[in-house]
Design a protein that fits this description.
Elements lengths: L1 H7 L2 H36 L6 H44 L9 H18 L1 H24 L4 H48 L1 H6 L7 H48 L5 H23 L1 H18 L24 E12 L2 E12 L2 E6 L6 H8 L7 E6 L2 E2 L5 H7 E4 L10 H6 L7 H10 L3 H5 L18 H15 L3 E5 L7 H15 L3 E5 L11 E6 L2 E6 L1 H5 L4 H12 L2
Parallel strand pairs: 3-8, 3-9, 6-7, 7-8
Antiparallel strand pairs: 1-2, 1-4, 4-5, 9-10
The structure holds adenosine-5'-triphosphate.
Family: Belongs to the ABC transporter superfamily. Siderophore-Fe(3+) uptake transporter (SIUT) (TC 3.A.1.21) family.
Protein name: ABC transporter ATP-binding protein
Pfam families: ABC_membrane (PF00664), ABC_tran (PF00005)
């Protein structure tokens, strides 16, 4: 478990944990030596032929050292515990930000919630509380046994063998329970999934009530109940097995001592001294066993966390061969070059050999029938995924070579599933450019059509958005995202008119934002309303994952083709 923790911790936190482990191990060694010396002092006191005084002095010195080292270790433990949890949270956050979005299926999302909110905070108690008794149970008997060699080396070997056997039995019991615990965790992940689904399906359930709607949830929760019972049940045989083993080992060591006393190879005072130590070690091992359940739980959490952290992130390649230089259709400088890009979800092809350029300044519209791959293409430009073949260059640099901050700095998005932080309207807009002044922030909010909303709220820009923006309407959420993009004024802005939040006013605002941003940067807008893109510098027509036409509105309407069909369909559906 320590090994896994060291592997996944960032170097600074791993260094602190190593220092704590060293302090705790030193304390456990001193504890063991002190115990061994107690046995020797008892022997010397009972044995008329030897003096206990030098041993008492040694015992006092070691005990003092133990108290000091233990004190330092204990003071460090809580600091390292909270530092470990914090480092793991940050590591988890950084890693999640680099995973391809295809990884985030509902089961894994439920696993992340569980790991981040419950698992990682619980891991804090490993360095803070559990590591000390775990090391004591292992290291102290060994150190005590070695100290006993001053009295009787055969007992040293016997105690070392007994410790190894007890350790093996405890591991066996905990491995058995670990398998059941992993099963319980899977069942509970499934239940979390069902609870989330049940909550998010409430609108559907209330308008289309069917009695069996909650049956998947019920059976998942029943599965958790059964798995938890099984899991609790496995702790008891493990504890009984370990307790029995300890008693047998203790009895075996007493029998060994009696045999040695009978054979006159050990004195009675020596036997008493050894048994005093062994009795104390048995108590320490029994206390360690009571922690087994806690350690097993932590081991399960750590294994799941390591599983997430071991998932390969979107690769960053260091070098790509320079491609031929390209010019935008207007002859100006190119900001984006999509070069024979193909992509599919789970091997189902969605985009095939798509090539186009976006100028450094100007408005490009992406149009096409539903399912033609428009959103997918925009997601590839924001590097939510990587193309299966081909490449996308931003300012001449392959997206796969950019570090995430560079990429995030170069792109702003207003997409269908944009998320608002559980903060205020102002803070969500400010994410676009944290250093923006209050006046710039207010101007962006105004340009995104938020002034009426803000004026109607008692706290104005400081009004809360709720988790994911739940306290705002769909249209208001979209306006906050538009304001964020306006404030950012990134070199490349990706806009999706978002059919779900579409209303004439929002369409007008998106269109105005696109026009405005296109004067300073490049804008790609997925357009559902063709009236808003008649002025676009370039229109790309996507059909079944291929670009079938490109050009201006005037040029495309003048020639037969997919665009003419789209315009005709749109005119037919417009009021
Ligand atoms: N996450 C996903 N996993 C699997 N398939 C997906 C995923 N997202 C989209 N698809 C599929 O990819 C294809 C293209 O979808 P995409 O959303 O890119 O089209 P679109 O042109 O944006 O459609 P619309 O105009 O309806 O939003 C569709 O067949 C869709 O079912």
């Amino acid at each position: 478990m320590l090994r896994t923790l060291y592997r996944i911790l960032p170097p600074a936190a791993a260094g602190q944990l190593a220092a704590l482990t060293a302090w705790l191990a030193a304390a456990a060694v001193l504890h063991g030596i002190a115990l061994g010396l107690v046995g020797i002092v008892v022997t010397a006191s009972l044995d008329s032929g030897s003096s206990a005084t030098p041993w008492l002095v040694a015992l006092g010195t070691v005990a003092l050292g133990f108290v000091i080292v233990q004190w330092v270790a204990q003071m460090t433990a809580f600091r390292v515990g909270s530092g470990t949890a914090r480092a793991l949270h940050l590591r988890l956050g950084d890693h999640l930000a680099q995973l391809p979005l295809s990884w985030f299926n509902p089961t894994r999302q439920a696993g992340i919630i569980d790991t981040a909110t419950t698992g990682v905070p619980q891991l804090m108690s490993f360095p803070a509380i559990l590591l000390r008794p775990a090391l004591t149970a292992l290291v102290t008997p060994a150190a005590a046994a070695l100290t006993l060699a001053l009295l009787d080396w055969r007992f040293t070997l016997a105690v070392l063998a007994a410790t190894a056997l007890a350790w093996y039995v405890s591991r066996y019991a905990s491995r058995l329970a670990g398998v059941i615990d992993a099963r319980r965790h899977r069942t509970s992940g499934e239940a979390t999934n069902r609870v989330l689904e049940y909550a998010s399906r409430q609108p559907l359930i209330r308008t289309d009530q069917r009695p069996d709607d909650a049956s998947a949830l019920h059976s998942a929760l029943e599965g958790v109940r059964r798995a938890s019972l099984r899991s609790a049940g496995t702790v008891i045989p493990g504890l009984l097995l370990f307790g029995l083993t300890l008693n047998i080992l203790f009895a075996g060591l007493i029998a060994f001592g009696i045999a040695r006393v009978t054979g006159e190879s050990l004195t009675v005072p020596g036997f008493v001294g050894v048994i005093v130590v062994v009795a104390r070690l048995t108590a320490i091992a029994a206390a360690g066993a009571e922690l087994a359940a806690g350690l097993r739980l932590q081991h399960g959490i750590l294994t799941r966390l390591a599983g997430i952290l071991d998932t390969p992130p979107l690769p960053r390649i260091s070098e790509v061969p320079a491609g031929p230089s390209v010019e935008s259709p207007g002859g100006g400088a190119v900001l984006v070059h999509a070069d024979r890009v193909s992509f599919g979800y789970d091997h189902t092809p969605v985009l095939a050999e798509v090539s186009f350029t976006l100028p450094r300044r100007g408005l490009t519209a992406l149009v096409g029938p539903s399912g033609s791959g428009k959103t997918t293409l925009v997601r590839l430009l924001a590097r939510f995924w990587d193309p299966t073949s081909g490449r996308i260059l931003l300012d001449g640099v392959d997206l796969r070579t950019l570090d995430p901050d560079q990429l995030a700095g170069g792109i702003a998005t207003v997409l269908q599933d944009d998320y608002l932080l559980d903060s205020t309207i102002g803070e969500n807009i400010r994410l676009g450019r944290p250093e923006a002044s209050e006046a710039e922030l207010a101007a962006a909010a105004g340009a995104a059509g938020l002034d009426t909303t803000i004026a109607g709220l008692p706290d104005g820009l400081d009004s809360p958005t709720g988790p994911g923006g739940a306290q705002l309407s769909g249209g208001q959420r979209q306006r906050v995202c538009i304001a964020r993009a306006l404030l950012k004024a990134a070199p490349l802005t990706l806009l999706d008119e978002a059919t779900s939040a579409l209303d004439p006013e929002n369409t007008r605002l998106i269109s105005a934002a696109a026009r405005r941003l296109a004067t300073t940067g490049s804008v790609l807008v997925i357009a559902h309303n063709l009236d808003t893109i008649t002025h676009a510098d370039q229109i790309l027509v996507l059909d079944q994952g291929r670009i079938v036409q490109r050009g201006t509105h005037a040029a495309l309407t003048a020639q037969p083709g997919r665009y003419q069909d789209l315009v005709r369909d749109h005119a037919g559906s417009s009021p």
